[in-house]
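General statements about sequence and structure are easier to judge against a single worked case. For one protein, we set the task of working out the structure tokens from the amino acid sequence alone. This step matters because it turns folding into a mapping between discrete strings. The amino acid sequence and the backbone structure tokens for this protein are reproduced below.
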Amino acid sequence: MKIERLSQDKIRIFLTFDDLLERGIQKDDMWREIPKVHELFSEMMDQAYSELGFDASGPLAVEVFALPAQGMVVIVTRGKAESQHNEHTDPDEDSDEDVYEMEVTLEQSDVLMYAFRDFEDVISVSNHLFSAGLSEDGRLYNYKGNWILAFDPAGTEPAKTHAVIALLAEYGDATSVTKAVLEEYGKVIISAGAVREICTHFKP
């Protein structure tokens, strides 16, 4: 579980599928109201507080993005807390329970995102993808000192998608960054046909 602060009132949490399995949670469970998911959320908020000092009291907007073959990204935005906390203290209420006011948005993202520290690795993987006939497409971003290749595998046969993932994983690392974050905080280097463009201008 990795936690990163995006702004004073917003954090991003990356959960691998191993993180979920360790807690007995399946990917599809994140779409359901079950105690295990609430426990996971409480654990995430405790870790966010201890690591970043992020106080999760008050209303929270929670966005959950499922990423293919990588894990899940949870973006938590803290709203303005109401100044009526005393009215909510009920002596009969179970004080051991952490109660969060959450507005949850769930999205399934099929975008493949891989980060590379060196541009040489981007050149190498692009040439492999191109020569193997796996892809000519993709978008290239620069974000926090890393190069990020993003692919939309919609309509691609699963075997081909797995082959693309295998090559990307050989040279880079699956990243928890979402397309929305990249477009807001990163820099678009090549907006379409990145693999073809890179292979045209660079040789490994």
Q: What stands out?
A: Strands lie at 2-7, 10-16, 59-67, 71-78, 101-108, 112-116, 139-143, 146-151, 173-174, 187-190. The two ends are 34 Å apart (CA to CA). The chain is about 30% helix and 30% strand.
